[in-house]
Amino acid sequence: MKRFNINELIWFIILISFPYYIYKLFATGEINIYMNPKMFKYVLFSFCVFVLLSIFQIRRIFNSNKVKKIKLGYIIFIIPLFLAFVVNPDRLNARIVSNKGVSIVDNNSDNRGKSIINNNEDSIQIDINTNSDRINNLDAEKFRDTLENVYVNLDSMMGEEVELSGFIYRELDFSTNRFVISRLLMSCCAADAQVTGLLCEWDEGSKLQDNVWIKVTGIIDSTTHYNKYTEKEETIPLIKVIKVESIKPPKDQYIYP
Amino acid sequence: MISRSIMNKVENVIIFLLSILIMIFLFNIIINFEGDAFSVIQKDYLEGFTVVFLSIILEVIPFVMIGTFISSIIQIFVSERTIVKIIPKNRLVGLIAASLMGIIFPVCECAIVPIMRRLIKKGVPLYIAVTFMLAVPIVNPVVLASTYYAFSDQTYMVFLRGFLGLMSAILIGHIIGIIQYKNDPLKNNTLHEHIGCSDEHDHQHHHSCGCGHHHHSVSVSKRGFFSKIIDIIEHTSLELYDVGKFLIIGAFLSALMQTFVSRSYILSIGQGKVSSTIVMMILAFVLSLCSEADAFIARTFVGQFTTGSIVGFLILGPMIDIKNTLMLSGSFKMKFVVKLITIISLVCFIMAMLVNIIGI
Name one GO cellular component term (chain B) (predicted). Predict the structure, then answer.
């Protein structure tokens, strides 16, 4: 029997496990939990490099003439693989993401001056989106566009009716009939995902449970919100809810900027 | 060798700490099988942590691969002599040239550490290598474009980021060049690729691929193209191991911070001009975001924080963060890494405060 190098063998197993894991992510569609679709090409690139490196690694497994102490550094590479296969998460929980900050306050006060220009651009954008065949994403895109529109053109949109679907998120200092209809906004990967949404008010709001997916219909209104960072009262949009429907969580939970 | 045994000890300590963490996670998994309300929360945290941890790795690994690949190409195709010829003799010209490299060399901060390490090993002066490492992830068409996209209504942020990032990188490179004039910042045990078969591991490595890497610069022209390709690939594989382990620890720590330390807690620490800048810089360091994505995060702070502190976030983040610190500490002396981080933080802080004082 030919002697083989245990170190090189372990490295080969690690090298081949990564592309297997990436393959699994794409095959099950779980990759959507981790990445913005625009990053997929990079992940596929790393898949190819891993496969290439593994192929060249095979040669080296049988290339040794000495028995070596096993390099402990390999344990570090096993940690992510271990977590990936054992924990195997199926979603990113909003409770964790909310740890990273929630935006329900209009962050760009400069925006308001430009409301008319932006309004035109946005409405054109929405038209293009409806015409495109990306129907699956339509819901998420509609959420994003509505959100942007409402933040930017709050004054002119007062009293209009909107329909949004998202999950329920609450902060501790909310009064009981208020909640945020929210989505996770991801610009690159899950590490930068954050909760974003619109504040809602519904008389029976206290009956709704956190993290449940719903569709709300309501009228746009405004309220003041005490911003504890700038220590100022700010005007933010508020949806006076007329109707709530419970829905199934969509396949693609995120919205992308 | 003494340094090697110290290195082994450090590695053992790291592994010990990590195995404790793994034990905690295993414990969590066992608890989860009992299925009461308390453990549901535990499970949420474990899953959240895993998603963030793996997503950082998945996102960063392609760029680290590009970095190690470019580094391997430099190792095998570019000789020390060529590098000496290319580097401008004038210090200022050299610094400015290094800082503008990003325009033709668009890699983000995850890929830059292996390349910079290789350049230093190839004899590039330290101040140029440092400026190169710090400036490229900021002065980079891709990063500036994403900044423009994120701050579409405040285009001056793009100029502030680009210009101040450039200035800081040059300044930091210059200071490092003065401070670290004589000392070699690299760890001794990483010098082996020049010296040759100085320890057992490399001995085995060099012979297993048929030819020591220290021969390459001499014999590269005589060898076939295919064997050069094999060299590059095997080199990439080795460097991926070297850099990858520190990347994973960095991602681990960053994910830990993101999952268990609430951002609003960090933000509640400081709201003044000085304290907000410090808080934003700490946040940039802790979050370890890719420089292409951090502008979108920075945007969410507009209105809550001063412009200066957001500029601090935007220029410090690409220069240094948890994962970069760990990747650096894999090949540089701890003392040098600490010095570098201190100087980077000070310079970025001054730049951010300047913006605050001028009051844009």
Answer: plasma membrane
Asked if B166 is an interface residue toward chain A (Cβ–Cβ < 8 A), one would say no
Six token digits for residue A20: 């297997």
Cα B290 from Cα A210, distance rounded (Å): 31
Q: Half-sphere exposure of B40 toward its Cβ, with a 13 Å CA cutoff?
A: 5
Q: What is the pLDDT of residues A101-118, one digit of tens each?
A: 555 544 443 333 333 333
Is this structure's pTM higher than 0.90?
no
State which residue of chain A sits closest to B55, comparing Cα positions: A34
8 A C-beta contact, residue B264 and residue A101: yes
CA A7 from centroid of its chain's CA atoms: 38
Q: Roughly how many angstroms between the first and final C-alpha of chain B, as a whole number? A: 55
Nearest-Å Rg of the Cα atoms of chain B is 22
Helices (H), chain B: 2-32, 37-77, 80-86, 91-100, 109-121, 126-135, 141-150, 156-179, 192-195, 200-208, 216-219, 225-260, 263-269, 273-287, 294-299, 307-319, 322-329, 334-358
The bridge status of strand A102-103 relative to strand A194-201 is parallel
Structure tokens at B37: 């309300």
Q: Which of A89, A96, A188 is closest, CB to CB, to B59?
A: A188
| Cβ count within 10 A of residue A143 | 22
Number of folded domains that form chain B = 1
Give the range of the structural domain holding residue B283, as residue numbers without chain letter: 2-358
CB B300 within 8 A of CB A194: yes
Closest residue, chain A, to B239 (C-alpha): A53
C-alpha neighbours within 13 Å on the C-beta side of residue B327: 31
**Residue B84, number of CB atoms within 10 A of its CB:** 12
Complex prediction ipTM = 0.78
Pick among 3.30.70.330, 2.130.10.10, 2.40.50.140, 3.90.180.10: CATH of A94-255 = 2.40.50.140
List of residues 6+ apart from A227 with CB closer than 8 A = A105, A233, A234, B303, B304
Helix (H, G, I), strand (E, B) or coil at A100: coil
Q: Which residues of B touch A192 (CB under 8 A)?
A: 287, 289, 293-294, 296-297
Query: Alpha-carbon Rg of chain A, whole angstroms?
Result: 24
Helices of type H across chain A: 6-28, 31-34, 40-61, 73-86, 94-98, 115-131, 135-152, 154-157
Output the CA angle A246-A250-A251, nearest 5 degrees.
160
Tens-digit pLDDT profile for residues A116-126: 333 333 333 33
Q: A168-190 in b/e burial notation, b at 16+ Cβ within 10 A?
A: bbbeeeeeeebbbbbbbbbbbbb
How do residues B232-273 score in pLDDT, each as one tens digit? 888 888 888 888 888 888 888 888 877 777 666 666 666 677
Q: Count of CB atoms within 10 A of residue A233's CB?
A: 10
CB B150 within 8 A of CB B296: yes
